[in-house]
Amino acid sequence: MPQWNCKGKPDSDLYALKIELIAELEKLSGQGLIDLFYGDESHICSEGYVPYGWKFPDEDIYISVEKGYKINIWGLISRYNQYHWATTEQNINASFVFEQLEKLSFQIHKQTVVMLDNASIHKAKIIQQ
């Protein structure tokens, strides 16, 4: 199976195949034959993140470190604005994603495809099974 090269660019043949497969899934979804969802996770934090700043040459500055409130969200959305989501104050891991997919499985009424990126939690054994 072709792999990513050192510059981070995908193998052109594999990339073309995946684009073709996604187009077919989009077509089936557009015809109402399947439900197609795209999923990922993110977070929101009450404290801003400032990794750099400006200062005058002789000025001493510091940015205090404070742990703010953080909430994580995992969600699925379709092109037709159907969505499933969950929030947590805990880290999102493969078990959490599995639990959400399990909940979704009780709500689907036709063949459903969930498209995820290559995050390690999306490729974990529990998800693949």
In short:
With 129 residues, this protein is an alpha+beta fold. It is built from 3 helices and 4 strands, in the order H-E-E-E-H-E-H.
Could you characterize the architecture of this molecule?
This protein is of the alpha+beta class. The chain has a single domain, classed as Ribonuclease H-like superfamily/Ribonuclease H (Nucleotidyltransferase, domain 5), CATH 3.30.420. The protein is 27% helix and 22% strand. It is built from three helices and four strands; from the N terminus they run αβββαβα. It has helices at 12-30, 94-105, 125-128, and strands spanning 35-45, 70-77, 83-88, 112-115. A four-stranded mixed β-sheet has the order 3-2-1-4. It is extended and about 65 Å long. The protein starts with 11 loop residues before the first helix and ends with a helix. The model has no long low-confidence stretch (mean pLDDT 88).
